[in-house]
UniProtKB/TrEMBL annotation:
Residues 12-110 form the SnoaL-like domain. One of its GO terms (molecular function) is isomerase activity. Keywords: Isomerase. This is Steroid delta-5-3-ketosteroid isomerase.
Length: 128
């Protein structure tokens, strides 16, 4: 795959998170894709847990914006530095950041994600 194709897949992934669109988001993934989000937690099978994942976002956030700050592509993998900004349903503003490593398979689907970020950052901002 070309670097442009890989970047387009990742852009679609981020756009669908921002839109909190479960169907569009999961279409980026292989049927047997795994997500380590965040790294350190047990992996999830994306196609089994995608409605729950996006549902959690919708339960907390009125607005969410995912921004790709940097992308580094090597072969069929990419590391993306990102920042998320959101407004909760209680009107609290949150900002958090991380790095996600994507493995793209030969069919042009995300096979694995490994997200490096700290969920406590969001929780602390929501509680403040």
């Amino acid at each position: 795959m070309s670097p442009e194709e890989i970047e387009n897949i990742i852009d679609s992934y981020l756009e669908n998170i921002s839109a909190m669109n479960p169907e569009g988001w999961v279409q980026n993934f292989a049927e047997d894709a795994l997500s380590y989000d965040p790294v350190g937690e047990p992996p999830t099978l994306v196609h089994e847990g995608f409605q729950e994942f996006i549902g959690q976002l919708k339960a907390v956030f009125a607005k969410l914006e995912a921004n790709k700050e940097s992308i580094f592509i090597a072969g069929n993998e990419a590391a993306v530095k990102w920042t998320m900004k959101g407004v909760s349903k209680t009107q609290k503003t949150v900002t958090f950041e991380g790095i996600t490593v994507f493995e793209i398979n030969e069919a042009g689907k995300i096979q694995t994600t490994r997200a490096y970020w700290n969920p406590q950052t969001i929780i602390a901002q929501l509680r403040s």
